[in-house]
Structures are given as structure tokens and as C-alpha cells.
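Supplementary notes (optional reading)

For those who missed the lab, this is the record we used. Protein: Beta-galactosidase. Length: 433 residues.
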Amino acid sequence: MKPFSNEFMMGAATAAHQVEGNNVNSDFWAMENVPNSMYKEPSLDAVDHYNRFKEDIQLLVDAGLNTYRFSIEWARIEPTKGSFDHNEIDHYRAVLEYCHEKSVTPIVTLHHFSSPKWVITEGGWESESTIGYFEKYSRYVVTELGDLIPYICTINEANMGKQIAKIMKRMSGSHTNSSEKKESNGDIQVGLNVEVKEKMEKYYRALGAEFGMDPRNIQTFHNPRTENGERIIMNCHEAARKAIKEVNPTIKVGITFSLYDHQALPGGEKFVLQEQHEDFLDYLPYIQDDDFLGVQNYSRKIHGANGYIKPDENTRLTKMGYEYYPEALGNVIRFVSKHWNKPIIVTENGLSTDNDEERVEFIERALAGVQDCMDEGIQILGYTYWSLLDNFEWQLGYDQTFGLIAVDRTTQTRYPKESLSFLGEIKKTGIIK
């Protein structure tokens, strides 16, 4: 395998709501804090990255890494409809300037799951009006900060609503038991919590009171999405891309998708093809004018003659319940490259584990797959491990540990793990040992 070049972007990723803390104007903050919340715990101060971003970026730099993917929080920039907060723009300007000062390439995501609460009360991610709102927000951010941003991911995991809809459809009408709950957590690349129907009903009643809406009309980014909602998400991407290019055509614009390595046993080919269309191929018409694609992969799914086959008791699993299978990343990149003849950035790849030796092994095997793909001629610009820090994993709270850096949340003290040094050493040498 050829070594990674000096220009190859290698680093780690975060999302604003998961690390910054006190994102009080977002829909997720509301959902975490209502009575009977489906969230294991609220995010609160998270890991205080909002105030400690220099320390965290410096740890990344000290390890030898050169890229940081992070998100700008819409709920901070536009806490109320039509009112932009210049102080928050100044904050993200400081983050970007610090990246450049440290020779770190910033990859900015404009929407990473959380939205301003007011967007949801205006109809959320099933409303035509959200297209205009997102375009206006994107245009404002790039007008203010675009000279500091080389790469923009408009929307993180734009296909997530469809994946959630499939899970909910499969599990609808059942009182979820512990085995079903474990299956659901391993069936989607995000921290969700599936509870018994009675608690879910109480939760949605509380949400309705919080948002002043019929709970059936609340459409956050993580709600199961209709086909019209899928179109709206992708129209938001198109509108944002157009605005970004009008303001600053030098910025490279893309989107990210949650992608499994779908594998077929005899008879399972039709299920793999269906999953590939739903996860990726159906979105191709919307991204033809993009500059790059963000690939996000954590595991594989195996399909037989009767559909998806759950991992058995002998399967090695991660803490999230995914199969431990680092080779999935290379397989997904190869699949994508057959339909996407433009640059790829691995914008998320990683695992939750309490054993950092497992993380080191995972990184080594995953990056070997990336190198193989590059040797085959596939254009891959970079790799950002998920995540830089142990952080708030949505409905599952703080138990999941994806990070290259551990955090004692009582003191907010950072403890870099061996995996951070390992990834940095690969960047410095270009070689996987």
C-alpha cells in the first residue's frame, strides 16, 4: 500500500450539540428536558467544548493530526426566527481562526441533527418553508465566515429519517422488550432509545405541550420521514449549495450519508439492492453538482433470503450493538465509487468501546481499507474519526464512548487515549504499521 500523502486530511469529528453544552434554543434541548423524556439524561454542559475548543483542537494538533470536522449550531446563530446572533458568529469565527492558526483544515457541517426550536414550530422537516429558512441561514453563515471555510457539509446524514422510518415500521405495534431494544440500537448509526409504548405516548404528549403543537405534527430531523420530507431535505441541500456558491464559489460543498456495508448471502441480493437504493442511490439526482461526498460508516448488515439477518451470540459487537467490522468502510467506499466519480471524504467512522485497544485495532483495519481503495484509484481526500471526544450520544446519553479523548465531566478534564496518538502517528508517517 502507498503511504498517505502529506496533503491527505486526517483528524476527527464532533457535532455542536453533542460537545458544546447549553444549546438551550434547540429542539433537542427541549426534547431532553420535558417530563417523561425518552433521553437517558439531558446534555447540560456536555463536555464544554464551546469554552474549551482551543484545548481540544490543540490536543488534536499535538497528536499530529491536521483536520477537524465540526458543526455550526443553527440554534445559536438564529435562536429566534429571522434574528441572527453576531456574538455566536464571532464564536465560530474564533474556532475557524484557531484551526487556521494551527494549520488544521476545518470541515464545517451546517446542520448536524439539531435545529432551532422555532423551525419545528414552523413545520420542521416536513414543511416546504424549511427550505427557505435553511437557505437563508446558510447564506448568512457563508457571508460572515466563508473566507475561513474550505469545505462545507450542508446536512449530516441526510438519509437518517428514512433509516429511522424503517426501524419504526418494523417495530410498530409491539411492546419493545430488551432484545428488540438491543436490535434497534445496532440497526441504525445514531444513538436512539426505544422504550415501551406507554412511555413513548407520555413523552409525545409532553412534547406537544412544550412545542405548543399536536405531537403528531412535530417533525424534528430524527422523526420518521415521508417521501415528501425526503424531497424537502434534499431541496434544503440544493438551496444551501446554490447560496454558498453564489457567495463564495471557492468553497467545496457536499453532503453526508449514513451508509452500511450491505452484504448478501444466497437469496439476499434483492434486499441488498433495495437497501442500497434507499440509503444512497435514490439521492444521486440531488448531488450531481456537489464537489465531494461525505461517507459515514460504522458496520455492515448481512441479508439472506428472508431479509436482514441479526448478529448471533457469537458475533463480536461494539458497545452500541453494531457488529465490529472495520472492513465495512472500504467496502462502502468501493460501492459508492461505482456511482460517484468525484472526491470522497470519510466524514465519520469509529466505534464505541471501553477498551481502547479495540479502537486502535479498528482504526488500523479501517484505514488499511481506505489505503487499498486509494491504491485502486478511488479519490479519497480525507478521514475524520468519530469522534474527537467522548460526548453526548443523543438519546443514549453519556454512556457511549466513541472518543479519542476521554472527559471527566465532573471537572471537564481531558484524558487523551492511546488511539489518538495512534491515529496521529499514521498521519505523521503516512504508514499503517
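If you only remember one thing from this example: The first helix runs from residue 16 to 19.
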